[in-house]
Amino acid sequence: MLYTLSRSPYACDLASLLLTARSGDDLLLMQDGVIAGLTGTSVLKKLIAAPLGLYALDVDVAARGLIAHFSDKIAVIGYNEFVALTVKQPQQMAW
Predict the structure, then answer these.
(1) What is the pLDDT of residue 24?
(2) DSSP alpha helix (H) spans, 1-95
(3) Which of 24, 26, 31, 71 could form a disulfide with 6 if both were Cys (CB 3.0 to 4.6 A apart)?
(4) Where are the domains positioned within the chain?
(5) Could you give the C-alpha distances from 2 to 64, 65, 69, in angstroms and in order?
(6) Which residues partner with 53 through β-bridges?
(7) Can you tell me the distance from the alpha carbon of 31 to that of 89, in angstroms, rounded to the nearest whole number?
(8) C-alpha distances out from residue 82 to 29, 59, 69, 76, 79, Å
(9) Band of the pLDDT at 75, cuts 50, 70, 90?
């Protein structure tokens, strides 16, 4: 399953997403969801502890000026890699 988080982790039920996730699933942070990748936050600690592959869209991280504050534990990818994730994970759930 590919989960996409497009809203701030402080404006959605991230706990439910993490309870639903299974080993081998992937999470793509996009739009305001990239806020979840900020270093030093409790949200990031929860994401790292989850059994998920973690990714973020490069254009959304850059558009919000977060590059210098973004965790190196999350792979920052472009649209081509996003497409590859959708091929890898044919089922998708948007949050």
Answers:
(1) 96
(2) 14-20, 42-49, 58-63, 79-88
(3) 31
(4) 2-94
(5) 23, 25, 25
(6) 26
(7) 20
(8) 10, 12, 22, 10, 5
(9) very high
The model's pTM: 0.95
Q: Is 60 left (phi over 0), alpha (psi -120 to 50) or beta?
A: alpha
Quickly name the fold that domain 2-94 has.
Hypothetical Protein Ychn; Chain: A, (3.40.1260)
Distance in angstroms (rounded) separating the CA atoms of residues 30 and 36: 10
Measured at the CA of 63, the angle between CA 83 and CA 69, to 5 degrees, comes to 100
Q: What percent of the chain stands above pLDDT 70? A: 100
Q: Give CA–CA dist 7/47, Å, rounded.
A: 15
What torsion, rounded to 10 degrees, do the Cα atoms 83, 28, 15, 65 define?
-150
Report pLDDT for 11: 93
Residue 94 identity (one-letter amino acid): A
